[in-house]
Hints:
CATH class of the largest domain in chain A: Mainly Alpha
Order of helices and strands of chain B: HHHHHHH
Number of domains of chain B: 2
Number of strands of chain B: 0
Helix content of chain A: 40-55%
Oligomer: heterodimer
Shape of chain B: rod-shaped
Low-confidence stretches of chain B: 1-24, 171-184, 234-282
Structural class of chain A: alpha/beta
Amino acid sequence: MRASFAKAAAAGDEAPLYFYSHLFLRHPEVRPMFPVSMVHQRDRLFRALGQVVDLVDDLDTLVPVLQQLGRDHRKFGTLAAHYPAVGASLLATLQHFDGAWDESLARDWGAAYELVAKVMVDAAEGAAQEPAWWEAKVVTHEVRSLDVAVLRLQTQVPLGYRAGQAVSVETELRPRLWRYYWPAGAARPDGLLELHVQAHDGGPVSSALVRHVGVGDVLRLGPAQGAATLLESGRDLLMVASGTGLAPLKAMVGEVAATSPGRRVHLFAGARDEAGLYDLPDLRRLEAEHPWLTVTPVVTGEGRAARSAHEHGDLPEVVLRHGPWTARDVHVAGDQRTVERTVEALTAHGVPPERVRAEVLAPSRPGPDVGGEVAR
Amino acid sequence: MSEHEGARAASAGLNGTARQVTGGQEARVGPADVEAVRFSSAGVLQRGYDVGQVDDFLDRVRAELERAGTELQRLEAESAALREELRAVREEPPAAPAPVDPTEQAVGILMAAQQTADQYVADAEGFSRMLAGQAREQYENLLQRAREEADEVLRAAHAAAGAASAGPLDASAGPAAPPAPGVPAQGPTAEEVREQVAYLQAFGRACRTQLRTYLEGLLADVEAQWGRADPSALPAATAAAGQRTAPGGTPLETPLPAPGAVDAHRAVVDLTGSDRTAPAHR
């Protein structure tokens, strides 16, 4: 079975392309569940399938992954009836790319897929008491800098999440494109939710959320995901944010306030220039409210544009200058480069790696050359 | 069965009402049988019908009624089941026709079509990314230059102010030396310099606002380009644009440029011309 998957995987983009074409011809009614451009969808499908095939001997790991997948697919409108359709096209695809395909392989794959589908369907049905998605109305929309907006959303039913978890967001302006964002601030019983959105050049969802979405619009949110929640050792905390990485850390400050206000928190908020410190007034308000919280804004850019009265310099260096931090738990969130360098610097500084949790904000569509991905 | 046998025997003895009995099936009683039934008289000594014949006939009628009752129940149950099925069928959406496996050729055609669509979307996004990047670069360059110019002007103004305040000192230190006639005045007074500085600061602010608005206009155009690649998103996009908030927190009166409307972009730029903090002319 692994061999036949390897053959399909070796065909690269051709295989998922064949799969989806087969599926849409056999079941035209499922096409509207997908976005116009299928490039990223195809990528995801084979990554997920590869993961399943890799883990097939390790059910303890595989089953929770499948359950999560099953629950998460509810927001796409996936029904139990769709699973056999996908199975049939999957088998047709494997057969197409495997010259040595025979009846017994077909039976094995059919049985394996049925099992996978059953775990996913059961998990989806188990989560049926929870909404498949939440409708969230935009109640405020503030453009804080050229490309950062802070949105406050209201859901009818509160969407439960832990600080540090992310929710997926879809706007009807960009149908079928879901992107992950971290709510900022601890979950509230009244269903209010704050999102920090940075518009990426050419990013369809982020730029729509910053520039086109307005008060009164309704977004769709998927269930919360992610395991990088607050470290619960009770130690004092160091938090380092760059850009909109501030959002999950602000949520953690909220959680500390609600659950363990004895822990001291030092939060560094980095941005390239002063305009990038888009949430400073609210951070100052939190700082005034909570005696255990210290906020240090840091301007990291170079040249005249970065002139500022705030701390200035390379973010990891500024953080270390305020040390020592070896006795604290550390949360880092932001762009990949800053997060990697900060984690590296803190580890070298002597913070044990298991006391550091990092989240990287990745634009969901990396690299400018999407065309290159198609050809790959 | 003995009852049935009896009934059959009785029917065989009835005048002209004997029924064909086939394959062990019980002879059934119909309305015609009841109409046509004749009983022999009981005998010479007794009045009335032959009791045996009447009883047999009644047995058959009872059997027939029982059968009819059972049959009715069965039919009612069947009818209810069918009605239920019909209702279910009516309520359910028409079942999709059984999926047909597509031909290799059809799959190939759809694959090519999907790739073409992917390519168009990728091109549109690439274009939007490039434009937005260029616009940002231009914004930063303009801002940088404006800052430098403002610094330059301020420096000049400070120098002039220094010179103006130094002027009277010089005059008081030396003997009265009125400026030679025909020579223009030494420079602006401190009051004039302050006015000029205030004017320049306001001008700087206006420039900033204007640059920002211009850039937002550009970005909105870029968005519109993206929108064209995905036309279904357009009406909602323009409707939503009317309610945005400007960076300073004041509502932007003018909606974002309508997609494709090149002039709208200019309208946004003109809007800042009437900005109250800006000088009346540039």
